[in-house]
Amino acid sequence: MVNLQKKQKPMIQRIQTLFMFLTLVLLSILIYNPIATYFIEPNMDKIVLNVFGVQNSSDLSVELLQNYWFLFAFIILVMLITFVTIFLYKRRVLQIRLCIVTIVMLVGLQGVMYYMVTAIGQNLHSKPHYNLVFIFPLIAAVLNFLAIRGIAKDEALIRSLDRLR
């Protein structure tokens, strides 16, 4: 007996899944790269801010000056929510809501990062040198918005098919 039904694509191949996966990649890159760098004038000491804290990396050794574990934990939480959202493709309304929560969290993360960079710069009396990863939460928020649009299109298509039956 031959199965004449069309093979359905796995839901992992949807464009919104790609957007959410790119969000995970950007946040992973953010974890492993410095957010900003400060150079202290007299000795040209190099102070680095990353998600783990403030580090003095002027000589060969790296010394942790201040710990920011909450920033790391917050990024991991956003990544976990995004990862779970990818696999909720059968519950599109919940997927949209979780994407909205993720966008709010990413914008909040961007605000906290900006506050930390400026506050540390004022304390060190140094101007921050921003790295490219500083804007990754905003790019990830835009990617999540694009994922919401794709999910909403899927939901509209399913509802229109239900009306035709």
UniProtKB/TrEMBL annotation:
The lineage of its organism: Bacteria, Pseudomonadati, Bacteroidota, Bacteroidia, Bacteroidales. It comes from the Bacteria. Pfam families: DUF4293. Keywords: Membrane, Transmembrane, Transmembrane helix. The keyword Kinase does not apply. This is DUF4293 family protein. The chain crosses the membrane at residues 21-40, 68-89, 96-117, 129-152. The keyword Membrane applies. InterPro entries: DUF4293 (IPR025635).
